[in-house]
Amino acid sequence: MIKTLDTAECQRILRNNYIGYLAYIYNHRPYVVPITYYYDELENAVIGYSGNGHKTKALRNNTAVSLEVAEIESVSNWESVLAHGTYREFDGSAAKINLHKFSEGVKKIIQTRENKKMDHISEFSSKIFKEGLPVVFQIAVEELTGKERHY
């Protein structure tokens, strides 16, 4: 039986994971890309970072986004959450603070879930920036929906 998740259950799934699929529109076409993220429960927001490119250009043009996160064990045992929200970028000290929050948050989740100690962001994220800060962003969560099946 498929059950609808309440807000607290959706937040638990976001909080306990760090890989999701970001959906956005660019040039009238939908795109879905995997991202590493951190869910800041106090702000009810997702924090991530990226280089300048297709994704950031698209998100600057249309700030409405969705993030899908799923825990799938089998066809009969899964949970899935869809977070709808608005994209915004940080700059200056706010970018540094949020990149640090992202890094520490993801490292803590990996330590808890996978029993691996991570020291540097490059150990769990493929982006390495040699010049300045990357584009640090937030998705302010406006709506959460979720489903689960446990059979």
UniProtKB/TrEMBL annotation:
It comes from the Bacteria. It comes from Gaetbulibacter aestuarii. SUPFAM superfamilies: FMN-binding split barrel (SSF50475). This is Pyridoxamine 5'-phosphate oxidase family protein.
